[in-house]
Amino acid sequence: MPSIAENLGLGTAFDLAPKRSAFCLSGSRRVVRVVHLTSVHAAMDIRIFYKECRSLARAGMQVTLLTPNGQDEVAEDVQIKTVPRARGRLSRVTRTVWSMYREAVRQDADLYHFHDPELIPVGLLLRARGKRVIYDVHEDVPKDILSKHYLPEWSRRMVSWAAREIENATCKRFSALVVVTPAIKKRFQSLHNRTVMIRNFPIPEEIAVGAEAPWDSREMAVAYVGGITGLRGIREMVQAMALLPESLPATLKIAGSSFYEDNLDDLPELNGWNRTHHLGYLDRSGIANLFGTVRAGLVLFHPAPNHMEAMPMKLFEYMAAGIPIIASDFPAWRELVGGVGCGILVDPLRPQAIAEAITYVLRHPAEAEEMGCRGQMAVRETYNWDSQAQELIRLYCELLELSCAE
Known about the structure:
The chain is an alpha/beta fold. About 40% of the residues lie in helices and about 15% in strands.
């Protein structure tokens, strides 16, 4: 009997063969050298390395990634070049930033693309040398500062205001801005006429491995993958597990390298922890395999200023993996999850509401599988990285005055 996925025309999985970009350089005999810079993210960051750098290399560009968080190596045609790593935040925004600028100058690239607001001075100095520079705005920094636990509450509004003023004043100096959400694009497009949205859509063939698992072979389990913090709903997830019916043998699997906040030390003491398995850090293949063992993915961010209009990558990864989503009922997420029909929206501050959603998904397997298939189809047709890679390469070609052949 055909599965729901086969009835929807999805087959068992996406094509797993590595793909070159749909766009490539055309008619250019010179080597195009580009440098990506990050002082915060890991060398193998999903957006920076796996998506942007790899796509540019596959389009025929010579790509170097500068970072203090890795090791010198060539990975998938991308040269990773490290600078000395700082021992604290202050050292990172001073010594590391200066080291990155000096190495960037030595690289003498045609175009530079930086990913952290603390690298704005580097971008400005490179522009002063006549270089083309892109600022990749991963999040709404001023709103994000309002929720930073390491800043005293009394200082957050002032720091947020300063960050907004700095970004607003400097963004006009760069060659282009790359943003990740419609809300961030709306903020910047009146300040810079070359503001391009490159969404954090998944690489379908990377995650869809988990979708091969038959639904009836999966565990009675749900998963959360990502930063383990209070603002991302870890307490409510664990508490919800304690509110499930005793007759439902369900577990919560969380994957993340560590608890990011000191005040989470008491998590193992919460009711529901006995149904929770902390798997630690998982690489990309480990995450794909995890998705093949569970029946739903959780994204239960609190309604913090920077969360309300964010579009976390895990939303789309759950969809690519063919599992339904249990997510916070934010307007932006309602439009995605509700529009596609790929999950259930809840109040993320109410463990009881979360428990009811988990119970529904686990007790209605056919409907849950249909939700997952609808999400997977949406990724296959619309919400996939291939479409965004084309936009990124098109921007590079415009800035470098090159022809791109499709």
